[in-house]
Design a protein that fits this description.
The complex is a heterodimer of chains A (137) and B (155).
Chain A lengths: L9 E4 L4 E7 L7 E3 L2 E3 L15 E6 L2 H10 L11 E7 L4 E2 L8 E6 L1 H4 L12 E4 L6
Parallel strand pairs in A: 5-8
Antiparallel strand pairs in A: 1-7, 2-6, 3-4, 8-9
Chain B lengths: L2 E4 L21 H19 L4 E3 H8 L3 H10 L5 E2 L5 E4 L8 H11 L4 H9 L10 H6 L4 H11 L2
Antiparallel strand pairs in B: 2-4, 3-4
Classes of the chains: A mainly beta (137), B mainly alpha (155).
Chain lengths: 137, 155
Amino acid sequence: MKFKDLHPPILELAPGQTFHRVQLTRARKTSVRVNGLLLAPTGLQSGRFCLRAEATAYLADSELTALYESMFRRDVHSRSLRQRRCLGRSHPHPLRRHAGGGGAVRVVYLARHARGALGRESTPEDLAFLSEPGSGF
Amino acid sequence: MNTLTFPLSTVPEIPRDKTSGQDPYASEAQTHALLRFGAQYRLQRIQAADMITTDEAAALSGTTRVTMNAWIKSGRCIGVSHLRRGYKLPRWQFEPFIFPVLAPMAAALGSTDGWQLLAFLESPHPALDGQSPRTALEQGTPAQRVIDLATAEGH
């Protein structure tokens, strides 16, 4: 069964929303660069929503969510924050899940409640797939 | 197919308990306690039974202490230090299933810092069904898969 066969609702975010992402301060040779975002190379499939053939950007709706999801979600005792910064970007156009895929980059939106007040692991239902042809990211 | 407008664009603030009036950020005392806890963790980890000295590691791998220090600095093997008491090295890194992976893994992570390498290898990873990369390697996961995850971690 394919994801789109489930007919999930389309989620749309109004323009002007600011997204946050923790990323490297300097790009590496293998980084995928998309309008200021520095992404891991395509096809590594390290996250739950990574695709084999598209770069994936994980964006959060707050700095704390970005930090939690990118740095502290895993059960780690030690974590280095060196060479990282929290990037805030707003988008000029509505963002919505692109049903057909195929955009330059797949954006996974990390909603505030995904962080969880008790630090619980987020579930797939907490997250919304978004891609944004021509939205400015 | 339904289209929903997500309401979060109207509430861009960081969530906080406005009714209590408390500062949502950690206090200086809490920050100090956290840093103390981190130092305590490192001390406990470095004193764990699986950690050996550079001399013991050199004997185990058939090299010299000088070579071992050079390997640590280049990321070819993992050495951690705490409070300038010299390096300690996890013994299991010299097992054949993991030693060849260390150098490319360090390059993928973009770091030769021993604590960073150790934390990556010993932390559960969702992409490995919750296993740590070290355990996954021991149980036969292809080394390239772990190196790919290290590359993603390094970004």
